[in-house]
Amino acid sequence: MSVANTNDERMLADNSHPGDKTALSRHAPLHLVSNTPKGRGIFAGQDIPARTVIDTCPVLVLDPQENVAHIEKTSLYHYTYNWPLPGGKAGKTQAVVFGLGSMFNHSTQDQNVGWTRDLEHQLIVYRALRPIAEGEELCISYGDHLTFVDADAPSSSELPIEQPEDVFAGLEVEMG
After folding, report:
1. CA dist., res. 126 & res. 6, Å (int)
2. Which domain, by its residues, includes 64?
3. Contact 150, 158 (CB under 8 A)
4. d(CA 158, CA 117)
5. Which terminal CB of the chain, N or C, has fewer other CB atoms within 10 Å?
6. Rounded mean pLDDT for each run of 10 residues along the chain, 176 residues in total
7. Any idea what DSSP says for residue 99?
8. CA 150, CA 153: separation in Å to the nearest integer?
């Protein structure tokens, strides 16, 4: 057996191809809690400093036709993310996020995790937007087109009561 064949066999055996590796990272400890007011959620098991990478998650980019024909009709659709079409094509599709990314709940008031897409490697990287205390739920923003009632939205009793304007306040009346 030649040295070249031995090297090739080693590469195949350990599946380490230069340039094909992408580092994945996850901050530990994190806890999945099943009984929150929002359903399941991810909570910090210790203090997390701002800008810390919380999780790096691979995604499966869905074919747009398969997404419409199949995925949109299932509960899985509620866990997908908008994703640009591959190859710079106009439009968008959905991506299934593997890892904790699909388990972060939404918060408009207490968002403490931000995320960015890595289109080239088909990843999403989640980072702490601010220091997160141990025991705090990790929440992202789902945007403003929600398909559910926002548990963080202020209730009608918490909204400020608007006072009607005095329609005559700016009028001057001349007495003749």
Report:
1. 40
2. 22-140
3. no
4. 36
5. C
6. 43 52 87 89 96 96 93 88 88 91 87 93 96 96 67 58 46 53
7. S
8. 5
